[in-house]
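Figure 3 (text version): structure tokens given as input.
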């Protein structure tokens, strides 16, 4: 379900929606030897998230190059990664999934 949401948002260039939904969609880790299709799907979702991050950086006229020092990821109380809120977090996201 999350994958379809991301695909639809990415196809419509709704980058904010992609960036908001991706952490929830990618929070599950899959075993490549057992869950090949899910690993492939996660890779595709990561790519869509990276494209949305690059697009957001371009809209902000920010450099997509990685920051010199990565900052710790913002997590909620349940430990889930939060959507990027700053240009530096977007830059790190591009590096993480690129």
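Below: residues designed for each position.
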């Amino acid at each position: 379900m999350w994958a379809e949401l991301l695909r639809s948002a990415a196809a419509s260039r709704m980058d904010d929606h992609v960036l908001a939904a991706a952490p929830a969609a990618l929070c599950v880790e899959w075993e490549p030897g057992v869950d090949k299709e899910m690993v492939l799907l996660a890779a595709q979702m990561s790519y869509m998230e990276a494209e949305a991050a690059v697009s957001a950086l371009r809209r902000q006229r920010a450099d997509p190059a990685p920051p010199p020092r990565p900052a710790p990821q913002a997590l909620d109380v349940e430990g889930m990664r939060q959507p990027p809120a700053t240009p530096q977090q977007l830059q790190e996201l591009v590096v993480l999934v690129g």
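The CA atoms of residues 20 and 83 lie 5 Å apart.
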